[in-house]
Write a structure and sequence with these properties.
InterPro entries: MMPL_dom (IPR004869), Mycobact_MmpL (IPR050545). Helices cover 63% and strands 8% of the residues. Strand 11 and strand 12 form a beta hairpin.
Amino acid sequence: MKSHRISIALAFVVIAALFCAIIAKQFTSGDTQFSSDILAVVPQSDVLTSPAITQAKAIIQQRSSGQLVFSSGNKHALLAFKQRLEQNAALTYIPPPDIKLDEVVAFYSRYPGSLMSSSYPSQLSEPSELLNYTLAELTKPDSTLSASSLSSDPTLALASFLNGVSHMGSMGQQDGLFKVQLSPEQQQVFAADDAHKTFYLARFMLTENGADFSQNIALTQQITGLISQFEAEYNSRIYFSGFAFHGSENAQQAEYEISTFGIISLVAVVLLVLVFFRNLIVIGLMLVTILNACIWGMAALVLVFDSVELIGLVFSVTLIGVAIDYLFHVLCAEKNTITTSLVLGFVTTAAGYALYSFSPMALLQQVAVFMIFGLLGALVFSLFCQYALDLKLKKPRIAWANVLMLLNREKAKLLAVLVVLFSLGFLVKPIVHQDDVAVLSNTSETLKHNEMFNLALLGQSNKHHFLLTADSMQSALEKQETVVKWLEKNANQVEVNSLANYLPSLNAQQTTYTLLQNKVVAGHYTEVSNSLGINVGVEQYSPLTVSEFKQSPLKQLLPLHLVFEDAHNAVLWFNVDTLTSDTLNELLNEHGDFLHLLDKRQEISDALGHYRSTVMGLMALSAVVAMLVMALRFDLVTALLSGLIIGLVTLCALLLSSWIQGAVNLFNYLATILILALAIDYLIFYRSKGLCQSNLQAISLSLCSSCLVFGILILSKTPAVFSFGLTLVIGLVSLYLLAPCIVKERK
């Protein structure tokens, strides 16, 4: 018998060593990596989009996630800082486009009669108005463009187009840096932070744009260290922003919380067990149980997933509190009397976690895999301890057992009162839902401010961004022109940054040429010709094509606006000043068949709300499944009573969480899945073993250890983790008080 026990123990060691080797191999070979990419854990929207739109969104996401932006009012400080960063092989500098106005004028002058601004046709209604317009354009102080294009296009239609092109971007450049002059309004907004009126920007791209948290942390720490150094040297602020900084902050916080919460939870549980059992062997068994559970869970995780989300490991630290529940029951119960209950408890708990695997969020799928296999490892080791060990442990009695028995005797009154109280509470102050993506991260206020500041300098704040799809480039330009005309008619003085501003469609150019030619033939330019002493006419039609634009001084703009193109699709990006919600909805309703709003934050928030509703449905389904299990294992009354207790505990946890937080989110509902899994455990053991001391001891230890682990999550700076921990603690305490009601009275 002794040799048999030794063989089983050696088998455990071999399996654990094998799993450790698998974990090490997966990480060292690069087959599995840690990730701090917060957006990667978010489900994609269920709204059906074309493959072209999906591809375009991925390209834009890659561009934005790999970009780092730095700005300062001190040009010399930013220049020195830029030169230092250029030495880093992980970064590639993006110089401002070198566009010379005279080259732009010379290029567009090759297409007279084809190009015209949208405001120019209003001057063609009367010949006298046209003369006044022409004289005013040629005599105003900034008439350089009109004078330069007069020889090639005396109608000044080209000059109107060039004026529009020249005002499309207010950013200049100096010494290889972007240069921005703050408007008076911007100066008032940012005066408290920085008194400079002119700012300079430098943009870099990550050479290898990945979500490897260790690389992000090392790089961003190096950059922020350099920023501090140059700020002190030049006595000027350098504002930094970029997805890598957000990812690094989240990764560092996750690493800190994993290590800190894990150690604190472990120490707290060790002290709890030591005080209760007063036996060092039990401490060793507990540590081995936790270690075995973590090894099994991690091995399954790296075999199933290529990328391990750090925030998922923060949630999985709850395994410490759950994994030793099986050991507690083994140590508190009589030998070989609870095997069936342990197995049934694991199956139901694993079924509760398995619900996570149906979620489209990678984070939840990883939590499910880690917890199911981790608990399996804990169960197997606990059963081995039940078989191989015969410890004579002195355990203190549960002093409040009489209170739990009283609750059981008065359960009808207790449950009736709670139903009334929670119903009234729900009616007076119902549960409020908040699905903002902010629950996923804990970005610092400094980085938020920097992001806002740099977006304002780049002219990207207070903008709506769109993707426009068509079956060809020319069709896309025509649709874009349709949208621009709609905005000019329905929105008040909004600026539109679109490719059609620089490259009108062939259809629009043909319309322009025909309009000008008709006006020339009708004699509208006769007075202009007589006043200027030149022949005002339209030359032979010569349109600007896409291939010619690719060779123009503005060719650098094409990759920015043309996001994706293949034989059957063209996707254009453009942005406009912020529209009112009514105007935006009307725009999308009218052109929604080819126009797609780019709002990543809202997309994620909508997805979180959608999957919160999905989790609510899964909770209801799992509660029904739990009732069926109880009915099959015991009786119908037990099943109905179990459903009532689970419902009250869940409502209590969510209602109090909503009152404390102000609103609940997806992660509060995810906590209810774990509450359900533990509730089934508690209810099965109470229904099987009653209110005997050994059962109360094990369940009380389980509650205390779980509260120690879950309670520590309330200290998390990540709102999602805080929400998860808060709901769990409230749910577990209420479950502990209500679960004894399931015990059947014995006459």
